Amino acid sequence: MDRALILDLRGVSYRYPGAAADALHDVSLALRAGDFHAVLGPNGSGKTTLVRVALGVVPLREGVAELLGRPAGRWSPRELARVAGVVAQREDNLFPQRVRDTVLLGRYPHLSLWGAVRPEDRAAVTRALERCDVATLADRWIWTLSGGEYQRVRVARALAQEPRLLVLDEPTASLDIRHEMELFELARGLADAEGLAVLLITHHLNLAARFADRVLLLSEGRAVAEGPPAEVLTREAAERVFEWPVTIEPFQDRPQIIPLRKRKDHA
Amino acid sequence: MRWLGLGAAAAVALALAIVLGPTHVAWSALGSSEIVRSLRLPRAILAFLVGGALGMAGAALQALVRNPLADPFLLGLSGGAGLGAVLAIALHLGGPWILPLAAFVGALAAMALVYRVGLVGGAELDPRVLILAGVAVGAFAGAVTTAIVSLASAADLRNALLWLWGGLSGASWDAVLVVCVYVPLPLGVLLAAARSLDLLALGEEPARFLGADVDRVRRRVYVAASLLTAAAVAVSGVVGFVGLIVPHAMRALWGHQHRALLPAAFVGGGTLLTLADTVARVAVAPRELPVGIVTALVGVPVFALLMRRWTAR
Question: What whole-number distance in Å separates Cα of residue A167 and Cα of residue A135?
Fold first, then answer.
C-alpha cells in the first residue's frame, strides 16, 4: 500500500448528549487516496453520525479519528474545508443564487480574509463545473435546476474546494435512474482518475455493491461487517440488518440484493 | 455602474439635505451660513451614518437569523431602547446626553437578555430561539414603556412619543463625532464576516463544511449588529424600516454576496434616511415630523411592491 492514508477511524464511539446508548459504537474504517467506500445501513443506524465524527464536528467518546494523520477534532473548519469536501444530506437556499456563484463558495476556505477572488479560484470553479458536466448550467439560477443537476452542482462545489476526501451523504435520494447512475459514475471516476478518497453514504445497496471497493454495514451504531461487497452483503447480514427477507443474485461478480415479497416469493 | 448610481444618489441626498430647509439660504451663502454649518451639515451626516448603520445591521441580521423578515428591531433592541429613553423622560433626567445614554443602556440590556436566552446549551446561538427571545423581550419592554407613558404628564407623553418615532433634531457635531468614533469597529466586524454570512445562508452544517466557524461568526455578527443598532437608536430614536427595506432593495440589485451587499446596504441606508430626514424637516415646516413616520410612509408601499414582484416570479 503506497497510496496515502486519508481517513483513519479506529474503534470510534459517540453518544449524543442525554442519549441512553451510543449512536456509534466501536466502528473502524480506513480510507486511502483513490478508494471508494460506501456506508450502508437502515435509517438511524449511525451513518451521518459517522461523518460527523470523522470530520470532527462532534467530539469522540472513545477511539481515534484521524484525517491525514491529524486528529479530526484538531482541524479548524477552514483548514478542514481545504482537505475535505462534503455534500451534506440537506441544505437550504435562503437567497437566490446562480450556479457559478454557489460553486465559488467552495473557494472560500482558500481565500484570505480581505482578499479578492483570484484567477486561480475562477479556474478551479471552471474545472469543477466541467468535471461534473454542469459547465453549461453556470449562469442558471439554482432553483431552475432539476434534482440531478442540482446534486452535480453541489459535488462541483465540493470539488472546487480541491479536497483529498469527498464525502457524499445520500446524494441520490429521490433521483431517477439516469441521474443516480451519473452521480455514482462521477464519484467512481473521481476516485479512479483524480485519486480522491470517496466516502459515500447511501441506501442503494445494489449500486453500492457495484461501484464501491469496500462497504461498511452499520446497524444501531455498530459495524455488522466491513469489507468487499461480496463478503459483507450476504443474505444473512442483509436480512438481519434490514429485517426483511432477501435473496442475493450475483451480477458481474457483485452481489445484488433482491427483497422478497412476504408470501408469494417464498414458495 | 451600480456603484456609480448609488454614489450619485447618496451625493444628491446629501446635497438636498444641505440646500433645503425651513429657512431659505441663498446659494452664494451656503458655504458661510451658520445654519448650514452648525445645523444642516451635522444633521445630514448623522442621518447618513445612522441610516447606513441600520441598513448594514439589517442585511447582516437577515443572513444571521436566516429570515428575510429580520430587521435590527426584531431582536428586541427598539423595545429596550424605548424603555430606557421613556424611563429617562418620566424621571425628568434632563440634559442632551442623558436621553441617548439611557436609550443606549436600554438597548444593550435588551441585547444581553436576548443573547442570554438565545444561547442554547451554553455556547451555540440558535437563530430561531434568538428571534423568539427578541420578540418576547421587545413585547415585554413595550408593555412597560406603555405603562410608564400612560402614567406620565401630557408634556412628557409628547416627548416620549416623538422620541419613539425617531428624530434627528438633536443632531450636533458632538453626536457626529461620537458615531464616527463608535461605528467603524462593528462595521469592520460585519465586513470581516461577509463571506461567512454567504455560507451561513446554506445552513449550519453545510456552512461549517465550507470552512465557516459557525458559532463564532454568529456571536460576532449578533453583537456587532446590535451595537450598531443601539448607537443608531441612541442618537436618533427608533427609526423603523430602513434596516428592513434597504437590504432587500440592495439584494435585488447586488445579489447576495455580502462582500458587496453590506457596503451597498450602508450607502443605501444612509441615502434613504438622509432623504427621509429632509422630507421630515421640510414637509410641514416650520414644524417637523418624526423621521420614523416618513420612513414608514415611504417604506411600507415600497416593501409591498417588492414583495409583489418577488412572489410574482
Answer: 22
